[in-house]
Amino acid sequence: MQSGLRVIEMGERDDDGVPLSAEASMELIERERRSVGRRLAVNQAPIFAVWGVTFLIGWGACYLAAPGGPRVLAVAAAVPIVVVLYAVAIAVPIVLGARAAKGVRGPSRLSGAMYGWAWALGFLALFAINTGLIRQGLAPATITMLWTGTAQLVTGLMYLAGGMLWRDRVHYALGVWMLVVAAGSVFAGMPGDFLVLALAGGGGFLLWSGLSLVTGGRR
After folding, report:
1. Does 52 share its domain with 141?
2. Burial of 118 (0-12, 13-18, 19+ CB in 10 A)
3. Containing domain of residue 107, as a range?
4. Residue 219 belongs to a domain
5. 22 vs 12, 14, 60, CA distance in Å?
């Protein structure tokens, strides 16, 4: 059972000492469930904002360094920027989820932990698969779009999973948008894919961050 949920016992009475009816008991249980849910929910606004900054700055830096682009930034500088920003963006939901689940027991804690680690596992698998494909002799331009497209694909699928897990339409809609951006980036080619990811991807995350604040910043 989730920590902080008051146990509703048989024969529960109201303030006047009158036993609660079955309907009143169910309403009381539902109020307790919503109250605990609000206390344990993870604020999504900062997570969306971190991803927005990651896409805007990280992929924007790659566009500025890519052949065919402005070439005002060295590739050796752009790649570490993307790696560091992605590492931070992946860590943020794991840390916030762990804090929200602190003291929680049962299925809720397990689901949150599994979802958080799915981010890391997904990107580890992506790295292994892409590395294996590259060793088969892919062209340089194809390699770049492979990394950007698949990274965006994993991100979109994880947000779809989060939307289903918490029945959050905003979360799910963001996942759909990320998948659209992933496909659009590949069709844009090089170096347009970086620009699509930076503006449409980063802008989408920042927009959803704002929407999350408007709707309460909760799942």
Report:
1. yes
2. middle
3. 43-214
4. no
5. 10, 12, 58
Integer angstrom CA distances of residue 189 from 7, 12, 181, 183, 185:
58, 65, 13, 11, 7
Tokens representing 59 are 């992929």
Whether the CA torsion 195, 202, 122, 176 is positive or negative: it is negative
- Per residue in 80-120, pLDDT (tens digit) is 999 999 889 888 877 776 666 565 555 666 777 788 788 88
- In single-letter form, the type of residue at position 31 comes to R
Ramachandran sector of residue 68 (left: φ over 0; alpha: ψ -120 to 50; beta: rest): left
Q: What is the pLDDT of residues 34-52, one digit of tens each?
A: 544 444 455 678 888 999 9
Contacts 24+ apart (CB under 8 A), 135-140: none
- Closest Cα partner for 207 from 60, 49, 42, 47? 49
Answer whether 69's CB lies under 8 Å from 194's CB: yes
Average pLDDT over residues 65-87: 91
Average pLDDT value for residue range 115-136: 90
Whether 122 and 90 share a structural domain: yes
Whether 132 maps to a domain, the answer reads yes
Burial string for 145-176 (b: 16+ CB within 10 Å, else e) reads bbbbbbbbbbbbbbbbbbbebbebebbbbbbe
Mean pLDDT confidence for 210-218: 70
Name residue 174's amino acid. L
pLDDT of 196: 95
